[in-house]
Amino acid sequence: MKEYPLQTPLSQMTSPPLRLGMTQWSHNAWQRKFYPSGTKSGERLARYAEVFNTVEGNTTFYASPSHATVANWKAATSDAFRFTFKFPQPITHQMMLRHSDAMVSEFMTLMQPLHERIGLWKIQLPAAFGPQYLPDLERFLTAMPKAYNVGVEVRHPAFFAKGDEERALNSLLIEHSADRIIMDSRPVFAVQPDTDALLDAQQKKPCVPVHAISTSTKPMVRFIGDPTLERNDTFFANWQKKIPQWIEEGKTPYLMIHTANNDQAPELAAHFYELLTQQIALPPLAPLFPEDISSQMSLL
Is the pTM of this model over 0.85? Predict the structure, then answer.
């Protein structure tokens, strides 16, 4: 069993066994606990990166950042951190990957300062992107530089039916060393929507089967948890086995934790990481809350 230096947290490792993060680094509800008192909005990413070593960059899906913003993101993180930015929505949803070369080139040029800190370039495809569009996905993947790691998320039912269409998708991803992103939204659909957050999640989140397949070296699991944290463990049980298996195989899994409103996402991510440490040796996670840091310092 591999051992890790006790004083080197996950967030400081340049070659970690696992990437752990959430869908955002800035969330107002975390101001009361996760961010130290007085943290400004522009300082939140640096604080986030002290604990977690990746983040799902949804912001680029909706709008391209400015050059100054890209520079700020780089300055707030270290070489140990990895972003997983989504391609812009016009490329994936409006153009369905077709005739988008110029737009892709512009986006990649904009993000160039962060290229070495991109863990996965994410292609999130709409439910309308069915098997008939696989040739377009193949052309898109073929055009991507071989040095870039790419993750693909699909939502069309045919890609979850375990038939020829799903096998064709998986074969295509394996051929191009692209990871199939796995969505696990079971927790939010397993309960009655007794909160506004759950109701909103059930209306907006995809409800697709969970196919725990790894088609390359960086499998990503997007786990959308129930805001009632104790109701999530049952759904995480299989991941407690699968993620250590991937690590033992030499892969670097990405575990992205959501909750319906994300208010308690840091706690859920830390809890799941603790469960994983019961299955496989992992480096420690940095203290989640500022008061924990103060407590540790007082003992020195």
Answer: yes
